[in-house]
Design a protein that fits this description.
Layout lengths: L2 H12 L12 H19 L10 H7 L4 H20 L26 H8 L4 H13 L3 H5 L6 E2 L2 E4 L2 E4 L2 H17 L23 H6 L5 H7 L3 H18 L21 H11 L6 E8 L5 E7 L2 H5 L4 H14 L3 E7 L9 E2 L5 E2 L1
Parallel strand pairs: 4-7, 5-6
Antiparallel strand pairs: 1-2, 2-3, 4-5, 7-8
């Protein structure tokens, strides 16, 4: 039976460029899947000469009864039999249609705002900015570790194919961290945003483990609480409310979050006119939506049948439109161009989650 797992291991490590094609896998993936399946393979090797002799009943007999152990054992065995069957070393895949119930997702407990506030106001600039990126924008630690200095420009974060307009508190902490970074390691050639005493002389990024070590709260706990747009908005508003309360403003009768401008104050008609005036009719502009920012910016979504015409050559039209909208509103604008199908009827400006105006 040793030869068959060896074939699987070779395919996983090196891939295969001839049919059936497959790409190589990371060593961590190979080790994990082999560790899941190895106890089962050893048990079968005592009584079988080949994996071709293994039936569905044999697989079911050795699987743990339920839960995560069962799921990971099936995952490892399924990978092995899938590769061997594709190369005709086994006739069937005995793991086919073996059902593993999905694990119930644990509901994260409420984030301790006092601890989160302490982390945001930490005297360590690295800890403060990492916490802010997690709490306001739910940036995963692995991506955060590989951020480069050039990814943050003009209060915007370039992340993969997205542009994230950073919230005001995040921008403040980024500026403080960059100032501290330049003062502490003025001669470093490391292009990554986050560096420390052990890697500032190298060009390597920090690890996600180092990112996690800077926090006093579970990073995954914070990120789950701000995993979607509504979670980010709730988190931002609650943090803002706490800061207002701490400053004593709440005692003066100002409601939490009232320093945020309402969407009705955003010159809706002027925004719509600017969009129609700036963009060509051939772009097929459909619905548009204007949302108040979580703290100090405006989000504008424009649906167009031909988004390329909205962006223009080298994104020139896009940049000019955003600059004009920022001049109109007096606040940073996060402009999103979304592809839409042809629509009939009037074009609308959506004011908020429940209200709209033509």
């Amino acid at each position: 039976m040793r030869r068959e797992p060896g074939v699987w291991l070779d395919v996983m490590r090196n891939g295969n460029t001839t049919p059936p094609r497959s790409r190589s896998r990371a060593d961590d993936t190979i080790r994990a899947q082999l560790a899941f399946a190895l106890p089962v393979l050893r048990a079968w090797a005592a009584t079988r000469d080949s994996l071709r002799e293994i039936s569905r009943a044999d697989v079911l007999a050795v699987l743990p009864p339920s839960g995560q152990p069962r799921a990971i054992a099936v995952q490892g065995l399924r990978s092995i039999f899938r590769v061997l069957r594709a190369r005709k070393l086994v006739f069937t895949n005995p793991t086919f249609r073996i059902h593993v119930p999905a694990q119930a997702m644990a509901v994260p407990s409420e984030v301790d705002l006092a601890a989160l506030r302490d982390a945001l106001d930490s005297p360590s600039p690295a800890r403060a900015v990492i916490t802010a990126l997690l709490a306001y924008h739910a940036i995963p630690m692995r991506q955060m570790a590989r951020l480069q200095l050039t990814d943050i420009r003009g209060g915007r974060l370039q992340l993969d194919n997205r542009v994230i307009l950073l919230a005001g508190p995040v921008r403040d902490r980024v500026d403080a961290y960059l100032a501290n970074r330049a003062e502490t390691w003025p001669t470093t050639a490391n292009a990554y945003l986050f560096i420390h005493a052990r890697n500032w002389k190298t060009t390597r990024p920090v690890t996600s483990d180092w990112i996690g070590q800077q926090l006093s709260i579970s990073a995954e706990h914070i990120r789950r609480a701000a995993a979607d747009e509504q979670g980010q908005r709730d988190m931002a508003n609650r943090l803002l409310a706490d800061h207002i309360e701490l400053a004593g403003i709440g005692e003066a009768g100002i409601a939490a979050g009232s320093e945020l401008e309402t969407v009705q104050d955003l010159l809706i008609d002027e925004i719509a006119d600017a969009i129609h005036r700036r963009l060509p009719r051939a772009a097929g502009i459909g619905n548009m939506a204007v949302w108040s920012g979580d703290l100090d910016h405006v989000k504008v979504d424009i649906h167009a049948r031909r988004p390329g015409l909205v962006h223009g050559h080298g994104h020139a039209e896009f940049d000019r439109l955003r600059a004009e909208l920022e001049e109109l509103t007096g606040r940073p604008v996060q402009l999103n161009i979304l592809e839409s199908r042809p629509e009939k009827g009037r074009k609308e400006i959506q004011i908020g989650p429940g209200d709209s105006a033509s």
